[in-house]
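INFO worker-7 received task bundle
INFO bundle size: 2
INFO processing item 0
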Amino acid sequence: MDKVRAQILEVTIPRTASARIVINAPTQQIFDLIADPRCHPLFDGSGTLQGNISGPERLHLGAKFGMAMKIKVPYRITNKVVAFEEGRKISWCHLMKWTWSYELKDLGAGRTEVTETFDASEIPWLAGKWLAASGAIKHNPKWMAKSLVQLKAICES
């Protein structure tokens, strides 16, 4: 049996990354999982999310949610939802202003294309230095692909 992989997409904008996968599950089922911040540890492929999630059970435009993280050192981060289209797209950012987005496309027959994008293209210089020093820029494509594979496994089980 072939190993399930997400496609790491080619990007031309510096400090961005994108990955995509097709999940055999209805779009709304997948979106509901992503829109519940308490479910994020279930499909975090980076190993940086340490749990301890706070915020609403269901995200919406303007919602804030926090989580314990660890990239080299432990810290806590508060995110704010900056884009929200029910069943289609959700994006959040935090103090450093880079965004994480999930876009879902209904392919019909209970299949959904899910694209995860990290965008730090327009962040301040100092934030960019931290991203490079932490190794996040280098690792994000693989971490996102792993997250999507885990999301697929959850949604298809």
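INFO item 0 finished
INFO processing item 1
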Amino acid sequence: MTDEQEILKKLLVDEKDVVKELVSLVEKAKEIFVIEKSSGKIIFKNFGELIDAQRICALLSGRYFASKLGILEDHSLGVTEIAKELGRPKTALSGPIKDLTKKGFVIQLTTRKYAIAYHRIKDIFDAYFK
């Protein structure tokens, strides 16, 4: 093995470590929401206790998980769809969405829709769901 390969080898992780982290995230997520099996709808457990940024992150994370499970085809939502799902006015969500996008937790797609930054889900849960 070359010196370069030896250095790069430090980036490798075992699948069991990745699964272990995923189990931890799912346990946290279950405290916040569940996913309706037939429709992929995100059902919040304590909606009233969450601020809008948490609601948006939970909604988009749940939709991402539902798409990974094959329940939903598209996990992204437009502002109007997010507002409808959360039962909140669009005007109340523009600030939190902008802030989440600036932090890199939510990605604005070219289709004018938003999606969770799936590679940051652990950071999102650490920041918003302690």
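INFO item 1 finished
INFO post-check item 1: The chain is about 55% helix and 10% strand.
INFO post-check item 1: Residues 34 and 43 are 5 Å apart (CA to CA).
INFO worker-7 idle
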